[in-house]
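DM between two lab members

TW: hey, do you still have the PEBP-like protein entry open?
JB: yeah, one sec
JB: this one, 259 aa:
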Amino acid sequence: MALSALADDHAATSVSTLDFKNQFVASGIVPEVVAALDPSVSFYASYKAGDDDHDELLVPGSSLSVSEATMPFEFSVENLNNATNITAQTRFLIYLLDADAPARSDPTARNLRHYLAGNYTQTGQHSTVLPTAQLLAVPNGQFRPLTPFTNPNPSPGTGVHRFIYALYTQPARFNSAGFESVGMEAETQNWNLSRWRAQLGLGPAIGATFFTIDTSSNTTGTSGGRTNSTAGSSSAGTVSPPLGFGFMSFLMALVLFRM
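TW: and the structure you got?
JB:
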C-alpha cells in the first residue's frame, strides 16, 4: 500500500527515510529486485495528476496512470545533510527503470532503463509541491542524458509494473565526461546495476522512490514505452527541470544486486 503524502487540497507532506526503506520491502522490490536499500535522504519527484492536472508528490508506492508517468517537472530531496561527503558543489545522477519488463510474471528484460542523466545540482530553491524539500536540477548546457526520458507504457495484461527512481552522488570525473567514457552502453534492457555501479565508481543509492502502473487498465501500452524528446531540455532561467515465480524467482535470487 502506498504512503499517503497528501492531505486536503493535495497538500504534500514529508516521508521519512525509514518509511521509504519499509515501502521498498513491502513492495517486494527488496529483496526480489535489489538486495537492500538504506536511503540517507528522502527523494521525491513531482508530477501532474488526475483529470485536473494538479501538482502531486510522488511517494513510494504511488499508483500512476500512463498519462501521469511522464517526465517529472521536479526532483527534490530532504535530509541532504544526512548523506556523506555532500557539498554545495556535489552533483547527482538519477535513473528510472522498469523492474518488471516486459511482464511482472516473466521479467526477462528486468531493469529496463527509461532514464539516466547526471549533473543534477542543488539549486538553492525549494520544491513548489513540498516546500521543505530542496530542488535538484541540471544547469543550462549541462543536460546530456545517456538515456533520454522514455515514457513508461507497459503492454496491457502484463501485471502491475514497479518503476524505480534512484538518486546517487556523481563522481567528479563525470561533471564533464559522459558515462560512455567508461564503457557504458546505450542498451536499456537487462541493465546490470552492479556492473554499472562498478563502471562508474558509485556508492549505494542515497535515495530512491517508486511508483506502479497497473496494466489491467492500460489498453494501448508497449513494453518499451515512448520517448519524450523534450524531457529535461533547458528552460528559461538558469536550470532545467528535471530513477517468474517459482523456479524463475529462485534463479533471479542468485543474481540479486544492491542499488
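TW: got it. The domain at 8-253 is CATH 3.90.280.10 (Phosphatidylethanolamine-binding Protein). DSSP finds four helices and twelve strands in the chain.
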